[in-house]
Amino acid sequence: MTYQIPVYDINKEHSLSQPPNYNNKNSLMKTDKVYKCEITNIVELTDKEKLFQLKIIDPVEAKIFSFLPGQFVMLELPGFGEIPISISGSTSRRGSVALCIRKAGKVTNMLHKLSKGAHVGIRGPFGTHFPMKQMAGGNILLIAGGLGIAPLRAPIYYINEHRSEYENVHILYGVKTPDEIIFDFQFDSWRKVYGYNIDIIVEKPDKNWRGKTGLITELFNDIVIDPENTSAIVCGPPVMFKFVCDYLHRQGLPMNKMFVSLERRMHCGMGKCCRCMVGSTFTCVDGPVMDFWTVMNLKEAI
Ligand SMILES: Cc1cc2nc3c(=O)[nH]c(=O)nc-3n(C[C@H](O)[C@H](O)[C@H](O)COP(=O)(O)OP(=O)(O)OC[C@H]3O[C@@H](n4cnc5c(N)ncnc54)[C@H](O)[C@@H]3O)c2cc1C
Ligand code: FES
């Protein structure tokens, strides 16, 4: 079966002529500063992913460092290299930076060998962020595929801390196998304390899995979306966010109310080395967070 991109309804997308100003340039200042950090806690989430809690060592720097949901840091492991990692914690915990890291190669394998007390460096925060204020007042769909739940935690914490500003919050989370589910220890509190709906779906269940089975888009069969009053944040591999956003667009959700995080290999994180470019767009500065309309109009972005 061939898959067709839905036709744009430009009349519905009229607000795109004035794109939202969610690219906060001020947050791109001081981008070459390295904050020295101590790893204060490590939680083994799966055999591939660990959650690292970092504390900025200098108390003055700890007060200076702040970030917005969706931004990332360049994490430096001296002698091994520097990698971009999304911040996966609360924006309000000054001096504390949570990073959920999957073992992928040289730097991440080495990071997984570190213990509490080890020192690393971070630069940043970098990039655009999810426009949390612009989304306030309506319903929010938070949709994660696989490790996409890691960057999604920052907007989730933000909504927790500003709960009265948002209406219904629905988290949809899809993974390949049940043992890939992470942060499930938080799901109960997100449901009970903050009243979120959370649906999980597994592509390849094991014999113990009693929940829903299939691709993440199948979760939409059971929910009703109010397109006039809903925004979406979608984090995951490009093939996943494309199918999800196309579906939501067919339900009437404007493309400029869906936000995705576009990942590319990065080197400087600050628009200087051109490593992350898609066409003439710097993923590190113009992204990683972009609305789906922008991503669809970026040649070779997906
Ligand atoms: C904005 C941004 C946010 C990110 N957030 C997270 C996060 O929260 N948690 C996390 O675990 N990872 C995240 N990543 C991916 C992470 O940066 C890479 O896994 C890491 O750079 C790999 O470094 P390495 O030295 O361990 O692997 P390498 O030895 O450099 O590479 C190992 C393999 O990973 C692939 N790879 C490396 N970088 C990327 C990338 N950017 N995208 C896709 N494939 C890549 C390589 O092609 C290679 O196949 C993010 C990437 C970006 C750009
Ligand atoms: S990573 Fe260097 S320009 Fe984007």
Task: Please describe the topology of this protein.
Layout lengths: L33 E11 L4 E8 L2 H6 L7 E6 L3 E6 L9 E7 L3 H6 L7 E8 L5 H4 L3 E7 L3 H13 L7 E7 L11 H6 L4 E6 L9 E2 L16 E6 L2 H13 L7 E4 L15 E2 L2 E2 L6 E3 H5 L6
Parallel strand pairs: 7-8, 7-11, 8-9, 9-10, 11-12
Antiparallel strand pairs: 1-2, 1-6, 2-5, 3-4, 3-6, 12-15, 13-14
Bound molecules: flavin-adenine dinucleotide and FE2/S2 (inorganic) cluster (FES).
Structural overview:
- The protein is α/β, with parallel strands linked by helices.
- It has 7 helices and 15 strands.
- It has helices spanning 59-64, 106-111, 132-135, 149-161, 187-192, 238-250, 292-296; strands at 34-44, 49-56, 72-77, 81-86, 96-102, 119-126, 139-145, 169-175, 197-202, 212-213, 230-235, 258-261, 277-278, 281-282, 289-291.
- The strands form 3 sheets. Strands 10-9-8-7-11-12-15 form a 7-stranded mixed β-sheet, with helices on both faces. It has a 6-stranded antiparallel β-sheet with strand order 4-3-6-1-2-5. It has a two-stranded antiparallel sheet with strand order 13-14.
- Strand 3 and strand 4 form a beta hairpin.
- The longest helix has 13 residues, at 149-161.
- The protein is globular, with a radius of gyration of 19 Å.
- The protein starts with 33 loop residues before the first strand and ends in a 6-residue tail after the last helix.
- The relative contact order is 0.15.
- Bound molecules: flavin-adenine dinucleotide (FAD) and FE2/S2 (inorganic) cluster.
- FE2/S2 (inorganic) cluster binds next to loops.
